[in-house]
Amino acid sequence: MKKLLSITLLLFITTIANSQIIRAELTATGLTCSMCSKATYNQLISIAEVEKVEPDLNNTTFIIHFKSNTPVTISNLKKKVEDAGFAVGELVVLFKLDKQVAENNTSFLLDNNTYTFMDTKSSTLSGEVKLKILDKGFVVDKEYKKFLKMTKQYPSYVNTNKNTYHIKTL
Amino acid sequence: MTEPASNMPAKSFGIRNMNAFMFEADGKLNYHNMPEIMWGINKKWMIHAQGFISNRQEGGFETEGGSLYAKYRFFSEDNLKSHFRMALYGRYSLNKADIHQQELETMGHNTGYEAGFIATQLLHKVAISSSLSYERALDNNPNYKFPITESNSAMNYTLSVGKLMLPKVYTSYKQVNVNLMLELLGQRLNENQKSYLDIAPSVQFIINSQARIDLAYRQELYSTMIRTAPNGVILKLEYTFFNAFK
Questions:
Q1: Could you tell me if the ipTM is greater than 0.85?
Q2: Class assignment of domain A20-169?
């Protein structure tokens, strides 16, 4: 019993240790000046799982470092940017993955969130990988409308489920 | 002088103090002080409460009234370094001072209300805003009824252009930002068609990306109505507390 428990525990820890979100690069839209950028920075830094935020004032981008071994909820980033009064134009997330198959319409689960591949070349991903979030509110309107037209190829894209994200490899 | 269609960040709190040094035709100075508190409720709503103090009355400084203002941003389209936004706003003011001019102004002179619409286009470092509103004056209770012979309602229209001049390249939040702005402000009284048009150039300094100082000069370009002190200097000081509420 004890042996079974320790094997299960080891497997569980291995699963967590092998897949996680390390950081994200967020481009905010609708702003130019530093006061707007500071308002966005202050909102992002207030997220519990965020360790550090590095702003790039000239490009309105923010590099967001997450606390290690802490579950990350991607939608919190979007909500905080919108609370500041702006929008997310692009979000690229750095994942650490272990032999993850990347194929259109297949998914993986991490921190109770489902990540479904679309517009992606088939491959197997290991180590640190940058994946772009494609859902509504994470891309500019023009890009969202482009993806909406691909519902035949990617049927799950129209369903706006809070815990499901659509991703593509870069 | 005018608000953009954008709102304060959600859950933020701001304080503002407007000092208006307006000159009457004989050179007499009318000083108005308007302290204001501002609250960003969420990304679409903000509310302000303002007080009106001036030295116009005999006997020096007096608190003449106050107002409540709310703005609702109903449309926002954001792109890289640009946006187009539209908002609706409303103000209700109380003022007990005497009614001394044909110009209607619920921000500091008349009891009444104003309801309007603002649109703002931001394109890189330039912001263009325009607004249209309906203003209605009521009696300045308890002592001053609005004169029956005068127009108690007006349409207001504004156009403003602002540009971020400095810094040319950002290196930190601590840099002082300098904006130049030019506003055109007009009013037309509904019952007699009398009108005015003012121009107000201003310079804004943003300190530590959190505090703001505005210095403006307002000048009447033309007027067919009686106005006591349309020209003068305005100094505004503002500070925003981010994440003030949970």
A1: yes
A2: alpha beta
